[in-house]
Amino acid sequence: MPHLQLFLLGAPRAVVGGQTARLRTRKMLALLAYLALEPGPHPRRDLSALFWPGPPTPSRNALRVALHHLNTALGPGLLVGTAGTLELLRTCMWSDAQALIEAAKSGTVPVPVADLDQWPGEFLLGLELQASAEWDSWVTQMGLRLSQHADTLLSASAQSQFMAGRVPAALAAAQRRTELDPLNHGAYEQLVQLQRAAGRVVDAQQTERQRSDTLQREWGIGVRGTAHMRAGSRPALVGRSSLFQQMDEAWSRGQVVFLSGEAGVGKTRLAETFFAERQLDHFTVVAQAPDAVVPYAVHARSLRVNLAFLGHPPVPSRLRYELARTVPELWADRPRPLRTAAQRLRFYEAYIDFLAEVCPAYTPQLFENLHHWDQDSYQLGAYASAHGPPRGAHVRALMTFRPNELPAGMQGGLAAALEQGGAVVLEVPRLDIGGVHELLAQVEPNASGALADRLHRFTGGNPLFVLETASLLRASGGLTHPDYRELPRSREVGAVIARRFSRLSSAAQEVAQVAALAGAEFTFQVAVQVLGTELSVAAAFQELETAGIFQQERFAHDLLSLTAHDLTPPRVKTVVHRRLLTALRSTRASAATLARHAVAGECWPEAQALLLEASRDAADLLSSPVAQAFAAQAAALSTGPRSS
User: Fold this and answer.
1) How far apart are CA 158 and CA 300, in angstroms?
2) What pLDDT digit, counting tens, does each position of 446-490 carry?
3) Cβ atoms within 10 A of the Cβ of 296, count?
4) Contact indicator for 31, 51 with CB cutoff of 8 Å
5) Per DSSP, which regions of 369-414 are E strands?
6) Do residues 565 and 516 make contact, with C-beta atoms less than 8 angstroms apart?
7) Which class in CATH covers the domain with range 241-427?
8) What is the dotted CATH code of the domain comprising 1-174?
9) Terminal Cα distance for the chain, rounded
10) What is the model's pTM?
11) Structural domain boundaries of the chain?
């Protein structure tokens, strides 16, 4: 049996027996990609609707023809199934995209995808199809998922290479992150930190200028400061004057300031602007998601950046020996492992002595992403905060975190610090509608007020979401266009929101899916009718409210609803639409609304009847074009009910 290789990262191609397969249409290659990345048998009716939307009979015929040509091109045995299902035999297939997914799950760099620093990039590059909206959504979400996996693995690779002393490889991996996504703030932060820790100050300064120039070019406004920032480069802030004053008061009291808020709301920008306004030299340590499972990962990075920032000052040998447990280059031989609580305490004390003796004028720090910290670094930091001040090792820091991602142990420690008065938590909220108007005016002074209003509904006032959407509008010349009903969606924003949904319970995800598919008809009672028990739905509503995804039983903004819709699997959509049809029959829902759910739920006889009723309703309202459109849809269904 021939072996199939699918290269889906970059320009896609299929290779069989070492030779590139000649496929007659692009949809055949797209079908292979879908079957390769969505394991298991698929109903043929779903596949035909995905790639050839329209009346059932022509759709099924098109799939049948495509499968005939695929079997001819690939050889027999790779595509298997029954009269009603189809799947790709995975034991005789390999794809670079699947290798990347598996590597992300295991946390290792995949050999078959070549080196990650040579990762070819965009998923299904250049494969444009006239297919269903479901296909477009699947490609978008899979592309986001693969990009996120590649970025995570590159970040982990850069970190592990640096920890092992392979500096050039670490810098190459970090550099590749910025090349794959020029708007990736975390990638720039990591590259600058590694360059500074390696003593390449000039390279770090060049990276900072590159980041600033890129974001200035993309967004057209001043952007967040650098990892080593002085006064005079304050980014434009909108609606943050009150927060800035609270930060100033807390800093004057000697408190550690925690900035809490969702991704993209501007926590880092606020912190760096604060340091610049006070003319405070500082260094930044950015925790990454892989850090959470690596003991002392954040502590080791902080120590390296601290030493590089201070010009690698002399460190007493007794301290170097202990600190070499996390930074091996400080001692020739590996120190003995920590076996007892007393040994761990000695290590903690050495760190405090390092802060007091080597860093007497302790430099302020910005710690980003407390929610990604490993527990060991967190416990060490908590101990240093509680026991350091008597010896002059007082930590002066700003720290950022996302509240819904903070582990329970860290929440308890933060609560204790607040109770003792050593810290303050300030919430960084989304912008109100006035703030969005002001921010958009910086991007495009000639933009209309209608666009700013629409952006606020679309993004909920998240500054990153506003700027990313405005950037895409600028690229298409749409910042001053009068029609903003269909706003573009950024891949980076989609990834941010998808990560938020992934952290929800399955019950909350199901409620969000129902809300996205129901639209304006969604209510608590509708969710109960579709999903089952009232108690579980109530708990899911509370979870969605707490996570900031729902506000008063509705999505907080349009991007959340659109992403929830995209993340819902096709078969789940069909089932939910059927249940919504049943749930809404007892309400005053219009025939047009019921017809939408009947069509999406593949209830063909009911769909045809409801479309005809909707056509009559539209005609009664003197809306002839709409009436004709509904009638045409009903006529298209008259070719016969859809079957397997």
Assistant:
1) 14
2) 888 889 999 999 999 999 899 889 888 887 777 876 555 678 888
3) 20
4) yes
5) 397-401
6) yes
7) alpha beta
8) 1.10.10.10
9) 28
10) 0.69
11) 1-174, 241-427, 433-494, 504-637
